[in-house]
Design goal:
The protein folds into two domains: 64 residues, Orthogonal Bundle (Arc Repressor Mutant, subunit A), CATH 1.10.10; 155 residues, Chorismate lyase. By secondary structure, it is an alpha+beta fold. Helix 1 crosses helix 3 and helix 2 crosses helix 3. The protein has seven helices and ten strands. Helix content is 27%, strand content 33%.
Length: 233
């Protein structure tokens, strides 16, 4: 069976993207250039580029051309999602490893951020979340036991801390700050990245109607993740 010419053009472009000959941000040949290279009409070349744009492989900008899209997963920085829901929405498999799950006394800074007295007993967890087996998020979390009394008995390989806390102390407010950082050797080892690789660090504090529930630090390898948002005016 003969492959349609527009499909052959698509396959050609996809192979170059998949083999990293063309990287995110690279401009791909124009409709005229592809038409000449494949001996097809401009309309046929346009169909190939349009379909690749619709599939999210290319980004098309009028007057500038078509460019290879950034394939890293992107999460909204305007909303709070559980990491497992986010990963599964992309059709991928989520898995989690519990590195730390314990009861501790809060230091001064953590106590203040949680609205508690210094040395108050709080819950502390560290998890590694992976997407299709590749580490994606290092999560360190401090929890006010008042709003998650059974936190230490949960199986966080089956349910995320975010999902558990949202179920029993529904989220009413959140604040978060994002920065680019290089992290410690221990964290880079867990994330399986080079020591000097830049990471995205998201600090998040959440409230329910009765008070501050949790303080979380989420770290993502910069080469594997993006944060973004869409605003309407």
């Amino acid at each position: 069976m003969t492959i349609p010419r527009y499909a052959a053009i698509k396959d050609h472009i996809i192979r170059r993207v998949d083999t990293a000959r063309w990287k995110a941000g690279d401009r791909v040949p124009s409709e005229n250039e592809l038409a000449a290279e494949f001996s097809v009409s401009r309309m046929t070349a346009r169909r190939a580029l349009q379909e690749l744009g619709e599939q999210g492989i290319l980004v098309r900008t009028q007057g500038l051309g078509s460019f290879v899209a950034d394939a890293r997963p992107m999460s909204s920085m305007l909303q709070v999602h559980s990491i497992d829901t986010e990963i599964r929405a992309r059709g991928r498999e989520h898995s989690a490893e519990v590195l730390t799950l314990e009861e501790i006394e809060a230091d001064h800074n953590t106590a203040v951020l949680l609205g508690l007295d210094k040395d108050a007993v709080i819950f502390h967890s560290i998890l590694l979340h992976s997407e299709n087996g590749k580490p994606l998020q290092y999560e360190e979390r401090y929890v006010n036991p008042k709003f998650g009394p059974d936190y230490l008995t949960q199986d966080f390989t089956a349910i995320t801390p975010s999902s558990y806390l949202s179920a029993i102390s529904p989220l009413t407010e959140a604040e978060q700050a994002i920065e680019a950082v290089c992290v410690s050797a221990d964290v880079t080892s867990v994330l399986q990245i080079d020591l000097n690789e830049p990471c995205l660090k998201l600090n998040r504090r959440t409230w329910c109607q009765r008070g501050i529930v949790t303080l979380a630090t989420l770290i993502y390898p910069g080469s594997r993740y993006r944060l973004g948002g869409h605003l309407n005016f």
